[in-house]
Structures are given as structure tokens and as C-alpha cells.
Amino acid sequence: MKRSRALALLAGAVFSLNAMAWTVSFSGTIDQGFDNSGVFGVAGRDLRGLSFTQTIEIATDPALWSVTNGGPVFTDISGHGPAFVDTVTVDGQTVRFEVEATGYGRQFLFDEFSTQHTGADYLYTDQRGLAQGDTLRAFQYAYSYLQAFMPSLDFDQRLDLPASGLTTWSEFVITGQRHANFYGNASSIRVNGGPGQEVPEPTPLALAGFGLLLLGGHARRRGRGA
Asked: Within 10 A of 24 (CB to CB), how many other CB atoms are there?
């Protein structure tokens, strides 16, 4: 019985270390935007022409979403979803928004161009929910009908590239006690890259060591009980 419990704990640890998530970061210049309440430091400021980076972090485990679809050229999860974090920097001022649950969202990868040499490659992430009582939307996409840029259909892939040649869009909206919005095109795109933006993967040595610790503790308990 105790050995079974130890193995179950090991399996749970492996699952948590392999938590499915992705981080999508777009950087560029704001085309249109306004900060009504001073979300980014100055109330009543026109944000047009300022630099921005929006980084969305959200779990992509299909079990956490209400709708999942997939096929040879696309991966798609949508509907009600898990918590997410939206970290936004405007003109050097960084604000982190934590949302407890996604009221509606969609994570979408489409890789038709590189597999069929026609069609499009497409990356899409869209989240909506409440951030400490305020309504938040974080939305970003990139696509191209002229070049393949999606290495795979996995949400855990790495991508770091200039957005030249791609059609892009990044949008941020918060309404309530805090009120600001902007949208703009990206000059660079990063997926699952950079410090603090990686889902940890267990190494075989680490897993073996953890398993030995569990089984060693089990053996000690048996020795004391003899």
C-alpha cells in the first residue's frame, strides 16, 4: 500500500513538472491607445507612438479548457479556461495583471504553409477575465500567407523572430476602476523564451533521484516498523 502511494506521489511530481503552458510576448509600437486612469503612470496620456511589450502566460492543458480541437495542420483550445497572467510594459512602465479564470479564451496554432507549401501559418492567443475586479482582454496574433514561421503545432515550442513579413496584432484593454487600452503591430515575437518564461521539464537524473528519495523513505519506514 505504502509503495503504491510513493509511486503515485512520483507520478504526481512528474505531472506537475510537465505542466502544459505557453508564454507569448509581442513587442512593438502603439498605433492607437489611451491611458485614462494612469495604469501606466500618467492619467490622461495618449499612448500613440510609445513602445510596448505584452506577455501573456496561460496553461494549455486541454483538460483545463471547455473546447478542444485539432487536426493535421492545427491545434485549437478555447472556451472557459484557467487563470492567466498578462504583463504589459508601456514606455518602460511595467504592470502585471493576474486573472483567476478565463471567461473566454482561445489558443490556436495553424501550420498549413510549411506542411503543404500553400495556405498560411497562424499564431493566436486571446484571453478575457477579471483582474482584481476590472475587466481585462489580452489578445495577440501573427500570420503569414507568404512564409512558414511556425516550427510545429506544439504550444511548448520556442519561437523568437522579427515580425517583418508577418501580419501582427497586439491588443490590451482594461475597464473598470482602471481604464486603459492600446493596440499596435509587433516588431518582434517570442514564444516560450527568455528568463522566467519557461515551463520546467524534469531531467531523467532528477526524476531518478526523486524516485530514490521516495522509495528510500518507504524502506526506512518499513525498517522502523519491523
From this structure: 25
